[in-house]
């Protein structure tokens, strides 16, 4: 090995060592900041113009997007801006409500739903915002189950002709593998403090009393969903239960006939209705966005270092959903397969 090769190797090692030291210093500083109680100051979301209003008009309509499966799990890092976020949606709604120049909000929903509690949290945030300023939900390709649940918090709801919506219901699923265990000579021994502690365990058949217990939980969540829809759409629960609220997905036109939405249209119609409700025909339309900091992009900010860092690589681009067995979802059944 000649001197030039040895010199290049040494230089590469020095550079790698320097990068490693810098990375560790950054991570240590972020951890110390989190442990000492320092919190990143929340900066206002910046605005991006969607369509201009009249000349020198100061009033605005804010366009927000709720897209993908609704989940309470935080991704952190640079992916956080691209995925549905409970904190992000609440933050955007609060900023729009607090801004006097914002006259109304358009929430575009393109979601099959998601976790029961996460859907309820966003619904509550939308309902609170609608109590102060008009909120128009525009349903895109799909606004089913939890996506429709969220829409029930709005002032008005617009669906496209081709929107798939409704799917009013609750689903919970678990996998049973005790017969497979028996075929390969495996077994599971579980010690519990009560008869229902290992309910939904796939290592054994489910007892009849467990089936009754789990179905009662699902029914309770469904009854709440039904009540939310009944209150928002002014349709009696019994009518909903005996017609469209049996878990089926319907088109936008069918949803209009069932009084689940207020009108058929496109996003431009949602803007026009928001301007009308907000009494601001001259308003511009803007979107919110937040540029992550360098530490956020690395997942090393004080916000993202409260729990141990974990790096995951998803080669599917989010096409395949990762749902937890035993959790209740406002989702069409096809998303649990």
Question: Could you describe the 3D structure shown?
Answer:
The chain is α/β, with parallel strands linked by helices. The chain has a domain at 44-170 and 246-289 and 307-336: 2-enoyl-CoA Hydratase, Chain A, domain 1. Helix content is 38%, strand content 18%. The chain has ten helices and twelve strands. The protein has helices spanning 3-35, 86-98, 116-130, 146-151, 178-184, 208-233, 237-241, 252-257, 267-277, 294-298, and strands spanning 46-51, 60-67, 102-111, 114-115, 135-144, 156-159, 164-166, 171-172, 249-251, 263-264, 284-289, 328-330. Strands 1, 2, 3, 5, 6, 7, 9, 10 and 11 form a nine-stranded mixed sheet that branches. A three-stranded antiparallel sheet has the order 4-12-8. The longest helix has 33 residues, at 3-35. It starts with a helix and ends in a 7-residue tail after the last strand. 31% of the residues are buried.
């Amino acid at each position: 090995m000649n001197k030039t090769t040895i010199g290049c190797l040494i230089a590469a090692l020095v550079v790698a060592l320097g990068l490693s030291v810098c990375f560790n210093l950054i991570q240590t500083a972020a951890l110390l900041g989190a442990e000492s109680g320092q919190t990143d100051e929340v900066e206002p979301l910046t605005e991006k113009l969607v369509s201009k209003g009249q000349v020198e008009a100061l009033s605005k309509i804010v366009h927000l997007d709720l897209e993908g499966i609704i989940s309470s799990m935080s991704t952190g890092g640079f992916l956080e801006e691209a995925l549905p976020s409970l904190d992000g949606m609440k933050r955007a709604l609060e900023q729009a409500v607090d801004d006097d120049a914002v006259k109304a909000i358009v929430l575009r929903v393109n979601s099959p739903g998601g976790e029961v509690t996460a859907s309820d949290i966003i619904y509550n945030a939308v309902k609170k915002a609608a109590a102060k300023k008009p909120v128009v939900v525009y349903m895109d390709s799909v606004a089913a189950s939890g996506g429709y649940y969220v829409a029930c918090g709005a002032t008005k709801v617009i669906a496209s002709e081709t929107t798939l919506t409704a799917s009013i219901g609750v689903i919970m699923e678990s996998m049973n593998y005790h017969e497979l265990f028996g075929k390969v000579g495996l077994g599971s021994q579980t010690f519990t403090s009560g008869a229902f502690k290992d309910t939904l365990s796939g290592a054994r058949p489910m007892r009849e009393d467990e089936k009754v217990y789990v179905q009662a939980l699902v029914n309770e969540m469904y009854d709440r969903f039904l009540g939310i829809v009944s209150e928002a759409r002014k349709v009696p629960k019994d009518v909903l239960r005996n017609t469209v609220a049996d878990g089926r997905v319907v088109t936008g036109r069918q949803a209009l006939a069932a009084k689940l939405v207020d009108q058929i249209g496109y996003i431009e119609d949602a803007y026009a209705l928001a301007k009308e409700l907000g009494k601001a025909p001259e308003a511009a339309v803007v979107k919110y966005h937040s540029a992550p900091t360098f530490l956020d992009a690395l997942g090393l900010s004080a916000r993202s270092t409260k729990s141990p860092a974990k790096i995951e690589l998803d080669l599917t681009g989010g096409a395949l959903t990762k749902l937890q067995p035993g959790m209740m979802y406002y989702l069409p059944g096809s998303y649990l397969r």
